[in-house]
Each structure stands twice: as structure tokens, then as C-alpha cells.
Amino acid sequence: MNIKKMNRDEIKKIIPHREPFLLIDEIVEVEQGKKIKAVKHVSDEEYYFKGHFPSNPIMPGVLIVETIAQAGAVLALMMPENKGKIVLFAGIDKVRFKKIVRPGDELILDVELENLKRNIGKAKGRATVRDEVVCTAEILFALTQ
Q: How many other CB atoms are found less than 10 A from the CB of residue 22?
């Protein structure tokens, strides 16, 4: 089942994250159980820009990885057998940062589920801005109640 377009309110029905830590703004496309495309509109009002860095605002790399992970969490939790569970990091591998993300950027997140057995899974994620890769990562995750 393929799904297109979900807003923040619909995302909140799937994952437990809330402001200020819900980082994805919309889901553009889902191939259920396989891959997802999500969007983060990076606003100059983001709480972290006040300190990272006041005169040179840059989205922290750890939050880019978290944004990739949240898109992956939506993908995993859309599977009927995972409804109501929580997705936790089990590991982060092969993270690479290629470009800086700044206020006004539209961060596009592409996450593909590679493996999910029992309650442990692996996904590959990529974040882009204007079709340029800013970050890639492999995410290991655990599903729990």
C-alpha cells in the first residue's frame, strides 16, 4: 500500500514525538514497509539556532540524524504489527556529513528499511537539500512497548 502526503497532525498519530522535538513536518510518500520520503522545513525560529551558533546558525548534525531516524520511525510504526510501539536507537553507523544545513533550507529525508526481524531493524537514510546530499547514515533500531 502506497501512501502520499501526511501533515504534522497525522504524523503525531503515528510517532510519540512532540514539540520541540518533533522534527519532521510532512511525509511526502510512503511505500509501506519499504521506504519513506519526509520533509523538514528548517526555520530560523528553531530553538537550537540560539546557541548553534548565534552569528552563524547551523543545524546540528545529531539533529539531522535524529530527523532521518524520525522518518524511519514513521515507516516502521505504520506497519500494523508495530502500531503503538516506540522506536529506539540501537546503533548509528556510517554517518557522513557532506554539507551544512541552514535556516530556510528544506531538508528532504529518504529512508529505506533494509531489515526488520522481531523487534530489531536496520534502515539506510539520506538527507538532501536542493538535491545535494547533506548526510547519510545507517540506523539500527529496536521496537519496544
A: 16
* Neighbouring-strand partners of residue 88: 142
Type of residue at 98: K
Tens of pLDDT, residue by residue over 81-95, are 999 999 999 999 999
Which of the residues are catalytic?
Answer: 52
Extract the C-alpha cell encoding 18. Answer: 512532540
* Amino acid identity, position 126: R
Q: Domains (ranges, CATH) in the chain?
A: 2-144 (3.10.129.10)
Say whether pTM exceeds 0.90.
yes
The answer to whether residue 2 scores a pLDDT higher than 80 is no
What pLDDT is attached to residue 63? 98
Give the SS3 label for residue 103.
Answer: coil
Q: Whose grid coordinates read 529512508?
A: 111
3 state DSSP class of 106: strand
Instruction: Say if residues 140 and 68 touch (Cβ distance below 8 Å).
Output: no
Burial status of residue 71 (CB atoms within 10 A of its CB: 0-12, 13-18, 19 or more) = buried
